[in-house]
Every structure is written in structure tokens, then in C-alpha cells.
Amino acid sequence: IDAASLKMDLEEFELEVIDFEVEEVFEDKDEEGDEQGIHVYAPFEQYGALQKFIEDNGMSILSSGFEYIPTTTKKVEGAELEDVEKLLERLEELEEVQNVDNSMES
User: Fold this and answer.
1) Phi and psi at residue 36, in whole multiples of 5°?
2) What percent of the chain stands above pLDDT 70?
3) Extended beta strands in 1-106, E state
4) Which end of the chain is more exposed for a tag (fewer CB within 10 A), N or C?
């Protein structure tokens, strides 16, 4: 969200979006400490409703997208780690593949 379009303070905004099961809200600042934007993390199922709320309240969305955040991870080491990394590299090289996510803990 464009920080300049936020019509309330950050705490008030967090209270307003709590019904959308928002997991995290934080400010992104540049090197001088000036606000660049507000990041909001919420479940995929809430995406449309949250977007509508933001737009209905006159706030500008700078960008949006989906990010895979694993709920559990698996520790991978040694030769297995090398094999998995090779596989991930090959997948990323494929033209048809847009994103490669994993739940490995290295």
C-alpha cells in the first residue's frame, strides 16, 4: 500500500484489517527513514476482500502477489541438499515455470 494514501495511523489500520485474518503489517522505509509503503500479509482466501477494503477506503495498492510460506520445514543436508538444489535450479530454468517454492531448511 502506498504509505501516502493511508488515511489513518498504522495501529488503526491494523485494527481495521484484523477481520481479514491479517498475519503481519509493517512499514517499508528507505535509507533516509522515509516511508515507502505498507506491507500486508494475509491468507490467500482473504485476498479479494482485503483488496476491496483497501480500495474502498481510498488507499493505493503499489503491488500485490502471492508468496508461499511453509508451515513446516524439512532439514536437508549433504548430498541430499546438493540434489535438491540441482533440481530447483533446473526447474527455475524452465521457461514455463514462474516460481519455485520449497519447504526445505538448509
Assistant:
1) -105, -35
2) 96
3) 24-29, 35-41, 74-75, 104-105
4) C
